[in-house]
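Comment on this:
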Amino acid sequence: MSSSIYLSAAHKSSGKTVVSLGLCAAFKARTLKVQAFKKGPDYIDPIWLAQASGNPCYNLDFYTMSENEISALFHQQQSDIAIIEGNKGLYDGMSTTGGDANADMAKLLDTNVVLVIDSNGITRGVAPLLMGYQTFDTNVNIVGVILNKVAGERHESKLVQAIEYYTDTPVLGAVRRSKELVIDERHLGLMPANESTQSQRFINSAARMIADQVDLDKILSLASAKKLVDMPVSVIAFSNLTISVAKDPAFGFYYQDDLDAFKSLGVKIKYFDTLKASELPKCDGLFIGGGFPEMQLESLSSNQSLLADIKLKIEQGLPTYAECGGLMYLSQTITHQGKSHQMVGVIQANTVMTPKPIGRGYVQLAPTDQHPWEGAASVIYAHEFHYSKLENINPKTRYAYKVLRGVGVDNKHDGILTHNLLATYTHLRSVGGNRWVEQFVNFVRKNKE
């Protein structure tokens, strides 16, 4: 029987990710098939969760997906245990009245919730906190609590006594403060792509500590039964097409279900490394996703043969889609900490890194009459997160989108168009509201005919 558990918290930065990683790796070590999910549009946590579980992690997001799409994606992934990591706090969302919070996701998926509580600086006060979370929405089934960042035995004893005296919430574990379980949030995004040995070492430590300090058997017994759904196989319509996808320490932000969508259409994906490859693999289209190119500028810039090859092929008409980091890579230069590095140069603009995010959060776009792909939705719901901006943009630049909400390239437009390239700061999601993968593949097919 497949089962699932939803990990949430009272507030963000409570340590959900570390606990989620530890649980995924600890259950995997028991030879269970573990399937991880992440609520929201985040790319970074899913990279870690995929590494810890040994299986691709999928995002569940109320903003970009319908409830039916969320349920279908969740239930079609078969496993022994599914672990859903929430974002922010259990009841936190965009709406004051709810509907898009972790609690709503747990109810939609009919999944029991385990709360991870940041115990730093709290003892008896943990009881009214838990009581409040239990009574705020009685349709949310909170089945247990994991105490995190516990100072020691005395601290743990006070917390457990208060919880047991005032509530009926089982304490499933108490995770002690440890330097081994502290990881810088910026590093969190970089390590899986760049330092696989170090990231695996961290995951192994988390697994060991979680297995020692959390009752894994109890969590399995409290997990919700998960129904299995067989999804119809898509008709293979484009089996003769190949898309090259950049995947390496500089570029790694891809939604797994978007990559699955290419495969469901019969498209072959060829991954390549922008730091090492001398030229693009032979392909009919190119997709460069987001990532941290600013952390690999020396290597990217020194790979002159690949820069020249990508520029030539895009100028020759290779259908290309690039998001955020990919857009930056295709610009003329990236300037970081006062130093500029040459990039592909097919986009007539310069990228400048900034100390604070320029665009951060959910986005709404409307396609312009310049949009090259057929079938784009009239309003597109997506996400952006970039610590950079474009300068010296060619005033004759054409754009695929008007920005209704968000920042994009210049607060008004996103989706730079040149040759057969569409490059955005926005991260699209190939869902019912806007199946961009199918649109792009159709565009590639027509270009090949």
Notes: The two ends are 48 Å apart (CA to CA). The longest strand covers residues 142-150. The longest helix spans residues 196-213.
